[in-house]
Design a protein that fits this description.
Layout: H1 8-23, H2 43-52, H3 54-61, H4 66-77, H5 87-102, H6 107-115, H7 119-128, H8 155-161, H9 165-170, H10 176-182, H11 186-197, H12 202-214, H13 220-226, H14 228-240, H15 245-257, H16 263-278
Length: 283
């Protein structure tokens, strides 16, 4: 990987490709993929989200503040469908795209980008929740930031208490995506390295990285929608999987039937795919 900023357009292309590869995989358990839709989400909706979120990614690549770029990406995502297809993906891709174009795509580069976030970024982050329903956990303690479900209505409290966006993430460390922000995207880079080292098709790399991560950590989206016990069960099931497509398909069918969607693991996989692509992973 080059240690100097690269073409903004090419970086955004890689981010969109990562979003598209997420749904181009065969049998990615519990998620929309090329084989099936979910009850309330479809492949065309994800394709539209990947296309229509580009404006936000372009703003990140151009050096816009992270909160502004993220809110614009989410607003674009829902333009045609009104559905939350890639909210978490965009939360991870926005700073990654910014780092790739404004500094260097390394953990240190990410930390530099994230350290610059402001109260305005936090306000725009909250505004993004007005555009779409997002499954979130129990609000933090009374001395923590406002409940994100307040959306733009939280602006005054955010300003009065001077919550920067990075502060919001640090107060939400139980969330896997927030943890990426506070650790320099440690797991994202680890997954990207794993994907680069594999000798198989690109879609197989994406699926393998997804299942491997699902077996390591309880998925935040499953915790928020089905509870910690179910999240633990699915983590253990994924960890016991062999690299056998029939076993993977069986788990996929079961999770779809039970309406269990490991959405946060998919977010991390998209982020890792972007990093691996930027670091030269071949198509």
């Amino acid at each position: 990987m080059s240690e100097s900023p690269v073409s903004a357009s090419e970086v955004v292309d890689s981010a969109q490709l990562a979003l598209l590869l997420d749904i181009g995989v065969e049998a990615k358990p519990g998620n929309v993929d090329r084989d099936h839709d979910l009850e309330d989400l479809t492949l065309p909706q994800f394709l539209a989200g990947a296309a229509d979120s580009r404006t936000g990614l372009e703003r990140a690549a151009a050096g816009a503040p992270l909160g502004e770029a993220f809110e614009r990406g989410v607003r674009g995502m829902v333009t045609r469908t009104g559905e939350n297809t890639q909210f978490g993906c965009l939360l991870l891709l926005t700073p990654l795209v910014s780092a790739a174009t404004q500094t260097v795509l390394t953990p240190a580069g990410l930390r530099d980008v994230l350290a610059t976030t402001t109260v305005d970024d936090a306000v725009n982050f909250y505004r993004a929740f007005d555009h779409v329903d997002v499954a979130v956990g129990t609000p933090p303690a009374s001395n923590g930031p406002p409940d994100v479900r307040l959306g733009a209505a939280a602006e005054q409290q955010l300003r009065d208490e001077e919550w920067r966006l990075i502060d919001i993430m640090e107060a939400s460390s139980i969330d896997e995506n927030a943890t990426e922000w506070t650790t320099g995207f440690k797991r994202t880079f680890s997954m990207a390295k794993q994907m680069q080292s594999m000798e198989c098709s690109l879609t197989e790399r994406v699926r393998h990285a997804f299942i491997s991560r699902l077996g390591m950590t309880r998925d935040t989206h499953i915790i928020n929608t089905h509870g910690p016990q179910v999240a633990t069960e699915i983590r253990q099931r994924a960890a016991s999987l062999e690299d056998d497509i029939d076993q993977i398909r069986e788990l996929d069918r079961e999770l779809v039937d039970r309406n269990i969607n490991p959405g946060t693991t998919a977010d991390l996989t998209v982020a890792a795919t972007f990093v691996a692509l930027e670091r030269g992973m071949s198509i």
